[in-house]
Design goal:
The complex is a heterodimer. By secondary structure, chain A is mainly alpha-helical. Chain A has helices at residues 8-19, 27-34, 37-41, 52-67. Chain A is globular and about 35 Å long. Chain B is of the alpha+beta class. In chain B, helix 11 (275-287) crosses helix 13 (328-344). Chain B starts with a strand and ends with a strand. Classes of the chains: A mainly alpha, B alpha+beta.
Chain lengths: 70, 518
């Protein structure tokens, strides 16, 4: 998918807004944060050396666990 | 009929203090902007054009498009605030035909639009301010043709700049257009924003490279400007779109002049005894028809940041970094002739450590570490004539000191010409209450811009106008501004393409009425 919302910058923005309680962690947000293939493919190209895809995946896993404690 | 509510802060109250054009937008929470939105009734038609999977309406997706790289937008994003409005929806057309249909839909139903490349602009041009439909061009991302005989490349507008350059490099070519934003910009965005790369002193700016264009006009028609080395068949139509920032049409395809990868690159690091010596030497270099690929002269502050004021730079504190590239013989000759000129002006040559350091970080933003410390970091780039630059430098320093004595304000000069250069200024405000910071920033912009225009310069070398420079467009163009507005009125009478951008339509804060049947 070639859209801005799958870029590392956008994924970071979305995650930050969830952390700030400015964006609900609803189905639409979870769907946006699940689209990580583009971010994964450009990890090596990041001039800052960040792995945003992994950071987002970890954040979603943590947030989901908090929302659905076993 | 849709009525756009006024946005923006109230004008500054009259008084004895300095006045500046206010910020045209006011941030808000995502929830507030989401509450203000209605689901557009035209979504089914849009989905039928581009496919339902290529229309985005979830809040998270809309939020992702509420940014560019302006400090205003970056700080808004950091605080999870929408700079102005959420977009109405996002469409990602997969072909020019689909894009044209989307534009026709927009025209028929009065839907304001924003063509979106990668959002690397710094002037608010890509920010939604009127519930626009954002048209993301990144699916139009192919290198269509590389003609190795003619030295031309034809590329779709949504191709990422870094990927375009990599594709050319793989075949032994370079675009020669290497902005700091290379990896986070698109080729179409380069042309729309009339950008300049770091190697522009040798290879030219984007307007020197574009030979032909394809544009979807605001009525959905396709305009093709066939690539040609040059033509004298009336005024150049290309220039209506290069620098239009999308307000006159959407660039969908470009043919650019490209270059063989250079055989060699020579980095040169110089220490000048004074700025005047540096200006004089580099002016002579350019007027001697030498063409360094990179030429950067730093003021005292920026020199100190890079050199630490050590070694050669104690007695000669002004740093210059140059690069020569091309064939081994030509690059070597240009380097040697340049060194003669610079040494005659009192410069001493250092080793190339600082050049290699610059090369290593050339595509990184210098702002990031300052943002992390809550500094408001902004940049202002203007064009000045050689004869005016020394005075501009002093006057702008004084103006900024008067407005914000605690600010860090420094500059360097690059993108050199026989008749002048780009003066690139960095303003950093230490952490302070946001209202005070925003007021100070706007006052600085006003002072610097007015000083530049009064001294015969241009208020923007390559960052463009967008939203935030709109108040100064009339002073910049004079009578020419009426010509631009007339052109906008002719091509886009309903003001649907990037309303409020470039100052070509009613300023934000003025009520506008839109007839959806236009």
């Amino acid at each position: 998918m070639q859209a801005e919302s799958v870029t590392p910058t956008a994924l970071a923005m979305i995650a930050l807004a969830v952390m700030d309680d400015q964006l609900p962690f609803d189905a639409g947000t979870r769907a946006a944060l699940a689209r990580l293939s583009g971010a994964r493919s450009c990890v090596a190209a990041c001039p800052y050396g960040y792995d945003i895809a992994s950071a987002i995946a970890d954040f979603v896993a943590t947030r989901t666990a908090v929302a659905n404690p076993s | 009929m849709k009525q756009f509510e006024p946005l923006g802060r109230d004008p500054q109250p009259a008084g004895d203090g300095p006045q500046a054009p206010p910020w045209p937008v006011q941030p808000s929470t995502i929830a507030d902007r989401q509450r203000d939105r209605a689901t557009p009734g035209w979504l089914p038609e849009l989905r039928a054009i581009v496919g339902p999977q290529h229309v985005l309406i979830e809040t998270a997706d809309l939020w992702a498009y509420c940014r560019d790289r302006s400090p205003y937008a970056v700080f808004s994003a950091r605080n999870s605030r929408v700079p102005a409005t959420l977009p109405a929806a996002i469409a990602c057309p997969g072909s020019v035909a689909e894009l044209s249909e989307v534009v026709r839909l927009s025209r028929r139903l009065g839907i304001p639009v924003i063509p979106f490349g990668a959002g690397s602009g710094v002037m608010g041009g890509a920010l939604p301010v009127a519930d626009e439909l954002v048209i993301d061009l990144k699916r139009l991302n192919c290198l269509i043709d590389l003609n190795e005989t003619d030295g031309t490349a034809t590329v779709q507008a949504g191709m990422n700049g870094g990927q375009f350059e990599a594709a050319l490099n793989a075949r032994g070519f370079t675009s020669g257009h290497l902005p700091q934003s290379l990896h986070m910009s698109t080729v179409g965005g380069w042309a729309a924003c009339r950008s300049a790369g770091q190697s522009s002193t040798r290879y030219g700016k984007i307007e020197d490279m574009v030979l032909g264009l394809e544009v979807v006009l605001p009525d959905g028609q396709l305009l093709r400007i066939r690539p040609a080395a040059r033509r004298a068949v009336g005024p150049g139509l290309q220039d209506l779109f290069i620098g239009s920032e999308g307000v006159l049409g959407v660039i969908t395809e470009l043919t650019l002049r490209v270059w063989r990868l250079p055989e060699v690159r020579h980095g040169v690091v110089l220490a000048f005894p004074s700025l005047e010596a540096g200006f004089g030497a580099l002016r002579q270099v350019m007027q001697s028809e030498l063409r360094p690929a990179v030429a950067r002269l730093y003021d005292h502050e920026e020199s100190q940041q890079r050199t630490g004021g050590k070694g050669l730079f104690v007695a000669r504190p002004f740093l210059a970094i140059l690069e020569f590239c091309g064939s081994a013989r030509l690059a070597g000759l240009e380097r040697d002739l340049t060194l003669e000129i610079c040494k005659a002006a009192g410069a001493a040559q250092s080793d190339d450590t600082l050049y290699r350091e610059w090369l290593k970080h050339r595509y990184l933003s210098y702002s990031t570490p300052w943002y992390a410390r809550d500094y408001f970091n902004d940049t202002i780039e203007i064009t000045g004539r050689w004869s005016a630059l020394p005075g501009m430098h002093v006057a702008m320093h004084e103006a900024v000191r008067a407005i914000a004595p605690e600010a860090q304000f420094s500059m360097h000069w690059s993108h050199f010409y026989p008749d002048g250069a780009c003066q690139y200024m960095t303003l950093r405000l230490p952490p302070m209450p946001e209202e005070r910071a925003l007021s100070a920033i706007r006052l600085v912009w006003d002072a610097v811009t007015c000083e530049c225009q009064a001294r015969g310069g241009s208020m923007s070398h390559h960052h463009g106008v967008g939203l935030f420079r709109a108040p100064w467009m009339s002073a910049e163009h004079g009578t020419g501004f009426e010509l631009l507005k007339a052109l906008k009125q002719h091509l886009d009478p309903a003001n649907l393409f990037l309303p409020h951008k470039l100052g070509l339509s009613a300023a934000l804060g003025a009520k506008t009425r839109r007839d959806p049947g236009s």
